[in-house]
Amino acid sequence: ANGNIVAALEGGYVRSVLCKCVESVLATLLDADSNEKCKKELQTFYNNVGDNEMLDCINPSAAKSIRDTMKAHSKYWDCLKGV
User: Fold this and answer.
1) Full-model pTM
2) CA–CA distances in Å: residue 31 to residues 5, 10, 25, 28
3) Which conformational region is residue 7 in: left (phi greater than 0), alpha (psi within -120 to 50 degrees), or beta?
């Protein structure tokens, strides 16, 4: 890519947090240790989730939005059928 990169953030519905989201993406891209940090954070997350459904471990309103979106898209995506 000749040193160029495009980052597309989906959403932006809550403008009060959009700046922080963009800031976090840029900080991660610029952090040489971000890959290792990500692996550790992901492992910690999975350790905390355990056998629980992942969507039961996040904000209930966010989980409902995700479930509703998955249901709406399930008619177009076989991997979402029965969700």
Assistant:
1) 0.45
2) 15, 22, 10, 5
3) beta
